[in-house]
Amino acid sequence: MSILKGITSRIETFFIEVGEMAYFTGHFFKEVFTRPFEFKELLRQCYNIGNRSLLLVGITGFIIGLVLTLQTRPTLEEFGAESWMPSMVSISIVREIGPVIIALIFAGRIASGIGAELGSMRVTEQIDAMEVSGTNPFKYLVVTRILAATLMLPILVIFGDAIALYGSFIIENYKGEVSFQLYFVKVFSAIGFGDIIPATIKTFFFGFAIGLVGCFKGYNCENGTVGVGKAANSAVVFASMLLFILDFIAVFITDIFFEI
């Protein structure tokens, strides 16, 4: 009975949290279209979020390109299909590997940071002080961060994809003596709008989910400084799981759309 009671309690807690997040999301959409608009804070958050993630995304993208090419080239060489390497790597990176891995890196860097930042503001009563002073903390703290994450992740994914393709070119140039021009002619001949547009659109949803989860966990933080650590940790875990769910939905919808 105790085990059943524990499972029931966990399920109940999960659905309560889902309901609270749904209400939090509705509050966001209500506030985002009402005045005043915090443009200066939005620009500051865009710079902070993008700048904090740029180096990490660049290094990750570069390693993705190197490793994917090194692992795949021997297999293609067995079938005499080395010429397909630029096309295969570019489609793999642009469609799926780049957006998902960079979004996971972004979630680990940004969702935890937002959760810890807002959580510490909550437990030190800075958010309560903003409410007392007449400032709307939700609009100033939450809306700007969610919008900044939504806008910056697609830019970071494009940057990371470009770095990954350059890393792949370095291996191809070293192993197969492929020129820069030839490599990228093959890359751009293989990639079409059907690859780029769906992959870019889903990164907006990835960024929104990461910003939303980080803000939700931090804004509703409890239990003092211990709660701050829990908020940062749970923000990363929840955002990462949500990314895989959204990616599955995006791939499923894209597959149906292009079949039609």
H/E element order: HHHHHHHH
Structural class: mainly alpha
Number of domains: 1
**What oligomeric state is this?**
single chain
Tertiary shape: elongated
- In round numbers, the mean pLDDT is 84
Largest sheet entry: none
Classify the helix fraction into a percent range: over 70%
Tally of helical runs: 8
* Strand segment tally: 0
Distance between the termini: 51 Å
Whole-angstrom Rg: 21 Å
Q: Pick out the low-confidence regions.
A: none
Beta-strand share of residues: under 5%
Draw up the topology in text.
Elements: H1 2-32, H2 39-78, H3 85-123, H4 126-132, H5 137-176, H6 180-190, H7 193-219, H8 224-259
Structural summary, described in words:
- The protein has 260 residues and is mainly α.
- It has one domain (35-259).
- 89% of the residues lie in helices and 0% in strands.
- The radius of gyration is 21 Å and the shape is elongated.
- The mean pLDDT is 84.
Quick overview:
The chain is mainly alpha-helical. It is built from eight helices and no strands.
